[in-house]
Fold this protein.
Amino acid sequence: MRQTINAQLRNLTINLVRLGLAIDQNWPVFKSSERVIRWQNFKNIAFTLKDEPYEKVYEECKKNRDYNFLLLDGAMIQMLYKFDNRDNLIGHILSFYPHYDFARFQDFPDEYEELFYGTKHFTDILEGKAITFPLRFDFSQEHTEFIHPMVHATLGNYRDCRIPISKPVSPYRFISFILRNFYSVKFYNLNLFEEFEDDLTFDDTITENEKGLLHFTYE
């Protein structure tokens, strides 16, 4: 399991740059003492500053290059996976941190796109109606039914927002989710439907009672 996830992370690092979707990156590394795969420049700033305003968290992470990828619009992706001694997956933190200030991008959208994208296909994410918020998919062995599902999504900085997810999420599936939903024009123009196809499977962690809640699921 660990080798497969590490391979997906390395392939994503190569291909997001190749496709023109990332403008900076850190390679995944395995920290044997903690049994985690994380990015090379890991500083855990987002956790350290979790009670600070989102703008400060974003700026500190960006300044310190504390991410797997920096995307074309300044959004950051962080992916950390934790394993037991047999390389079974026992946890992950998958985060999407969009830039908090679209206003300055909208002042000169054509110039901005030419400078940062070299394309005219990103106006859909620069519209004034767009409201940015961080997104995180967490998996841990800590579990309290309904209150803290083993795998859950947190939207924004709401401390108790934990939307159940049926099972853990692979790197390919997470990036495909981000690109399809937040960079849809680029996703369709580049025909990325099969680029990050994933045959990695996990057992369900969601309980029967939690299935009665509105939740995220996939096959």
Summary: The chain has one domain: 2-212. The radius of gyration is 17 Å. The first helix runs from residue 2 to 18. The beta strands are 22-25, 28-31, 36-39, 69-71, 76-83, 89-97, 135-139, 151-155, 163-164.
